[in-house]
Amino acid sequence: MKHLFCLLLSLLLFSCNSKEKKTIKASAESQPKEIRTDLYGSYVGDFTVLERDTSRPAKENEINKINIVIKKITESKVTGQSVVAGNSRPLTGTMNVEGTIIHFILKEPGDDKNDGVFDFEIKNDTLLTGTWTANNSKKEVTKRTFELTKKEFKYDPNVMLPEEGMYIDYENPKEEQVTESAEDPEVQETEIYMETVYRAASESIVTLNSSTKKLKESDIKNLKKIDLEILRNTIFARHGLTFKTKTVRQFFDNIQWYIPVSDNVTSELTTVEKENIVLLKRFEKYAEDNYDSFGR
Description:
- Strand 5 and strand 6 form a beta hairpin.
- The chain has two domains: 37-151, Porin (Beta Barrel); 200-292, Methane Monooxygenase Hydroxylase, Chain G, domain 1.
- By secondary structure, it is an alpha+beta fold.
- The longest helix has 29 residues, at 2-30.
- It has helices at 2-30, 204-207, 217-220, 225-238, 246-252, 271-284; strands spanning 41-52, 63-73, 78-84, 87-98, 101-107, 116-123, 127-134, 141-151, 168-181, 190-200, 291-292.
- It has an eight-stranded antiparallel beta barrel with strand order 1-2-3-4-5-6-7-8. It has a three-stranded antiparallel sheet with strand order 9-10-11.
- The chain is built from six helices and eleven strands.
């Protein structure tokens, strides 16, 4: 009796396993076949205003850096992601091929005020060009254009901000009163006027690596607030964080190695980076800035 029970149990288990294997195989076979996997990846570049409501003050940047990610292509559906200006949005749509032209229409979900539709072509497998149209026709910017190149994102803790150029905060100017005396000492006249001044970072932001070096208080105690802010955000830039504020984006959107890939990279930070972020934020709270005049 015992042997008969074991035999029946074995047959039952074998039958269940066979059914499960058939179910898995059938499920795999029913999945749509992926095509043009060579087009998968990130396409990065400038997201430039094409149509703007000029009857109101300009609040949106003329140019932002955007990353359009193509994740999956089948005969009937394309899925991807758009990453720009602090937003990371899923994309779904279709692809059509006519001769050598590969045409995509991908839509953001539509449940965010900044969502829209991407209409673009991919040329030579590496150049993506097209337009984005806002769902909301009353937005300040209703249409943008872009020409993006295919780039692979890879975290590199050693990349640094380039040395050339000055890092000036043009997004937060301040008006300062200037009093100028006449050059001729016999002329007792003075001129008083207002001048626009800006914060400017020091060379510390291109010499200190806040991702690889455990910073000490002595390294940063004499730095300006803008230096501390940039050093902290360079950590996030290396991980591909898309920045929400224009103040931060102005320092990174033009950097060649910077590729926005996510709106949250907290889980990717190293121990050294986390400790440096805490230290930098503590010093930012009390640091001050000097303001100078600079030409645009």
